[in-house]
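WARN no homologs supplied; continuing
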Amino acid sequence: MAEQSPAIDVGHPPSALLRLVNPILSFLLRTPLAGRARKHLMVLSFTGRKTGRPYSIPLSAHVIDNDLYALCSATWKHNFRGGTPAEVVYDGKTTAMRGELIQDSAAVADLYLKCVQSYGVKRAQRMMGVKFRDQEIPTLEEFTEAVGRLHLAAVRLTPAE
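OK structure emitted
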């Protein structure tokens, strides 16, 4: 009998497509032309901790328990370990913020689950860059397993003081 695939896997668009679309999205999200996308997407700008290189990344914006989060598996997340200043363009406003990588895997799994519960299965897969084997909301245990296997992370973004 074949081994069953994991309940949660990555579901990002191809990286070549992202390289083409991301600069356009970054520009549009800074203008009124973005329309309703301004409520669902944000541009996260920060400086690399080791390289000093500036980054400006368009991503899905996730509001969970009234806090703004970036949910990702990308390596840039490590720049937020211990907290990092960032600029966030969200909902038509540019705000100085502080991003903090959440390192507790149970907390990350819980945030992913809450996010999926608020979006529903189809929208969650589109907004979060994941896919669900059974086309239903995975369990907390399945998210906990996926956090470790896929290196899923959450960056909490709070207004800078």
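DSSP finds four helices and nine strands in the chain.
OK
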